[in-house]
Design goal:
Order of helices and strands of chain A: HHEHEHEHEHHHHEHEHHHEHEH
Helix content of chain A: 40-55%
Distance between the termini of chain A: 36 Å
Order of helices and strands of chain B: HEHEHHHHEHEHHHHEHEHHHHEHEH
Strand content of chain B: 5-15%
Helix content of chain B: 40-55%
Radius of gyration of chain B: 21 Å
Largest sheet of chain A: 4 strands, parallel
Structural class of chain A: alpha/beta
Oligomer: heterodimer
Largest sheet of chain B: 4 strands, parallel
Number of helices of chain B: 18
Distance between the termini of chain B: 39 Å
């Protein structure tokens, strides 16, 4: 079994990671979204576990949330109601959209098997008062993680966790940089699998696997790499089927700027004598989410990615009712199109209506 | 007075009915305020576009003319022309998932002069500065980006933390939001709007007076029969989100108070014989407020609506005395904003709804879902369950976008309302 297959197996069967981790009596803390500092959870001796959804249709959650609430949020709530997250010792959310804000209230009201907490992260970057505010919030969160784990988080343990997670980020970035080649060594759908597996796994295990993978693919070339090079952006796509669809239509996905991939690892923590300050700045100096202000950094970052990876076309996937990304999309489309043809597509998280999408993607790729 | 649909060819619905003379004055003063912005612009004064619940005190303190954007969809809604502007926004690439209120003002901003109908043209002014925010909903925060681009405007963003602390936000949260307000004041200062600190204090003092008047009016609305119609309630609340001079607002509220007091003393209500008291939660059909009056044939009245509060003062009024301190103006505004009921998360709102249902003797709650809203639909079930559990009062929930006539179905709306009322009446008879 190749390394990519091992990682695919992890994404398809994440419960094995959980069982393995829990067999030592250690705790697992679920989280969503990217502004939950995993390093603090890890420094307390617990496994940070990113909660992904499933492609199955929503059942129970639809009687709690109106259908106009983001499908991803409803999907997570559905899994919670079905007690599929009962292995979590806590669920940590952060302030990234209205859906997540209300998920906190709804979860705390209707799902008592997993306690839920929300970190109040600011949405303004590079703001000194925001750093101070967020530091307070993170100190509270740190105390909570210490109480939950029974372990004291020291500066030293936090530094080690930061270094470990940065190593994962560096390795994933190194792998992704290989996709700049004229013929990339891994496909877009494989890249998403690798990212998601690395996010799910304990980093102590993910990092050696990533090193192994980088060695393995250095001389590899994907087949059918003659098509237009595509950058995919958007919020959360946690199923490779959508990327696979683009590739099936002849696109070569060379960049995927998603919450489940590049947004997670593209930036590293900057050195700082105070590890808590390092985390504060890491989160408030990177524009990975549409909730953050100002937006210019994310525009520039996407444009730069398109240039660096010699992209021919951009596809902006919008999860239905994902408001923050939806609001930005017309402005983004206009700006990105100054240099690169861009297609915006609304998609259901459950991936229903793939047939119709296929037609639109095909037309776009044929046009490039 | 009735409001007539003014656009030929547009489908007309039943306008709401004013019960109070003061409401008419408020309505006129509101339009006059926006018309006045044009004069300010012509005098060469820069105009600020701001999100709907930006604390108005900061604008009074720098004497700035402000176009409160979320107010506009309501005013255009009353005239049944808001959808035209939503369509312009859609033609510029905005999805129908984007809030109709935001789509409406985006369309106003992006549309050409020729696309503006006379009513909008009468009050439309191009922005010179923009103040955006992420409160009460996060969608708000990016709704201004395209406008800033279109008019090449300096842009300031006010970040409002969500309320995870209940009625006691910690000092660091208040300090943070104070800092955001100071930042906005500095930003305006850089563009010629100088802060008058004494005026800020005075404005906070007057704000406190306004809020106390609002609270007193609200208290009177607990009376049976209900002294105010749905339209009165909505229009009265509009004052809280615009920047009419505070002294004007006080005068208008004093008039409302006087009229409502007289009605309560005379036991005069919107209805002669009140059989059911309803509460409305969500955005009402601005273009067809009459549908809310139509429940009167059953002896039902909307005795309370949460929209009044959603329009900019959605806090639990019980604490006004202690938290609005003119000597600490920014701190007072920060506190008020952080504990505002509409500031997520939803616990405070749920508690308030339960209390209001009890205090206003409500028999049934009508909650509507505006599908493009990210703020309210997520917690309607929570409200329904809490209200029923604590008071035994039922809540009906149905789709109704109160700003977009294109998605409005009058027959279904009436059926939804009437079947709920009939059930409530049947239950009362048992």
């Amino acid at each position: 079994m190749g390394t990519i297959d091992i990682m695919r197996d992890i994404v398809e069967n994440p419960q094995r990671i959980i069982e393995d981790w829990k067999s030592d009596g250690k705790k697992v803390v679920g989280h969503r979204c990217l502004y939950v500092p995993e390093e603090i959870i890890h420094a307390a001796g617990m496994l940070p576990y990113p909660t992904f959804g499933t492609p199955e249709p929503i059942t129970k959650a639809d009687s709690y949330f109106q259908p106009c609430v983001c499908e991803f949020i409803r999907n997570l709530f559905d899994l919670g109601l079905d007690r599929k997250f009962d292995f979590l010792d806590s669920l940590i959310l952060c302030n990234t959209c209205d859906g997540v804000r209300h998920l906190k209230s709804m979860w705390s009201t209707y799902i008592d098997s997993v306690p839920c907490y929300i970190i109040n992260n600011p949405q303004k970057m590079y703001d000194e008062s925001g750093f101070k505010f967020y530091r307070h919030e993170l100190e509270m969160f740190k105390g909570m993680m210490e109480d939950l784990s029974g372990n004291k988080i020291t500066d030293e343990s936090l530094r080690k966790s930061i270094e470990l997670f940065d190593e994962t980020r560096r390795l994933l970035k190194e792998l992704y940089m290989l996709r700049k080649r004229d013929v990339p060594p891994i496909s877009g759908s494989e890249a998403l699998i690798v990212s998601m597996a690395s996010m799910l796994m304990p980093k102590e295990k993910a990092n050696p696997l990533l090193r192994q993978l980088i060695d393995e693919v250095k001389t590899r070339e994907i087949e059918n790499a003659d098509g237009p090079r595509i950058l995919i952006t958007g919020s959360i796509i946690d199923n490779p089927a959508l990327i696979q669809l683009v590739e099936d239509m002849g696109g070569v996905v060379v960049v995927d700027d998603l919450c489940s991939s590049m947004k997670y690892f593209w930036y590293e923590t900057k050195p700082n004598p105070d590890p808590m300050d390092a985390i504060v700045k890491f989160n408030l100096e990177r524009a990975v989410c549409a909730c953050m202000h100002p937006s210019q950094q994310r525009f520039d970052y996407l444009k730069e990615l398109a240039r660096e990876f010699k992209v021919d076309g951009i596809i902006y996937f919008l999860i239905k009712y994902c408001h923050t990304f939806t609001y930005e999309s017309p402005t983004y489309q206009e700006k990105l199109e100054e240099e690169t043809p861009t297609l915006t597509l609304e998609v259901d998280h459950s991936l229903s209506g793939l047939g119709q999408l296929r037609t639109r993607v095909q037309a776009f790729i044929e046009m490039l | 007075m009735t409001i007539e649909a003014t656009t030929p060819g547009k489908e007309t619905f039943t306008p709401g009915r004013f019960g109070l003379k003061a409401s008419e004055e408020i309505f006129m003063a509101t339009f006059a305020y926006y018309a006045g912005l044009k004069a300010a612009k012509e005098e060469g004064r820069p105009v600020i576009w701001a999100y709907g619940v930006t604390p108005r005190e900061i604008f009074h303190a720098v004497d700035a003319p402000v176009f409160y954007l979320e107010h506009v969809p309501f005013l255009l809604g009353f005239q049944q022309i808001g959808s035209h502007y939503m369509q312009i926004a859609e033609e510029h690439g905005f999805s129908k998932d984007v809030c109709t209120s935001h789509r409406c003002f985006i369309g106003c901003g992006l549309g050409s002069e020729q696309e503006r109908e006379p009513i909008l043209e009468g009050m439309f002014v191009e922005p010179d500065l923009i103040i955006a925010g992420n409160y009460p909903c996060m969608s708000e925060s990016k709704a201004f980006l395209c406008i800033a681009d279109r008019y090449d405007c300096p842009y300031y963003f006010i970040d409002t933390p969500i309320n995870t602390w209940g009625k006691d936000p910690p000092d660091y949260a208040i300090e943070y939001f104070e800092g955001q307000l100071k930042g906005a004041l500095d930003f305006m200062g850089e563009h010629g709007f100088n802060l008058d600190w004494d005026k800020l204090k005075e404005t906070v003092r007057l704000s406190k007076q306004i809020l106390l008047l609002f609270k007193e009016i609200d208290e009177l609305r607990k009376a049976i029969p209900a002294p105010m119609s749905s339209m009165d309630g909505l229009v009265t609340a509009l004052l809280l989100i615009q920047v009419l001079p505070p002294s004007t607002v006080i005068t208008l509220y004093e008039k409302v108070l006087k009229e409502v007091k007289e009605r309560v003393e005379k036991k005069e209500g919107a209805l002669e014989e009140e059989k059911l008291r309803l509460m409305f939660f969500g955005v009402p059909p601005t273009f067809n407020m009459g549908v809310l009056d139509s429940v009167e044939k059953y002896g039902a009245v909307f005795a309370k609506s949460l929209l009044e509060c959603a329009q900019g003062g959605m806090f639990d009024p019980s604490g006004i005395e202690s938290f609005m301190d003119p000597e600490k103006p920014l701190e007072s505004i920060a506190y008020r904003t952080l504990v505002d009921l509409i500031n997520p998360t939803s616990e405070a709102m749920v508690n308030y709804m339960v209390g209001a249902v009890k205090d206003f003797n409500i028999d049934g709650v009508v909650a509507v879902v505006k599908r493009s809203c990210g703020l309210i639909p997520p917690y309607l079930r929570q409200i329904k369950d809490a209200v029923y559990k604590e008071t035994g009062v039922p809540t009906t929930i149905f789709d109704l976008d109160g700003l977009d006539t294109r998605d409005y179905d009058d027959v279904t709306t009436r059926i939804n309302l009437e079947s709920f009322i009939e059930t409530l009446l049947a239950s009362k008879r048992r």
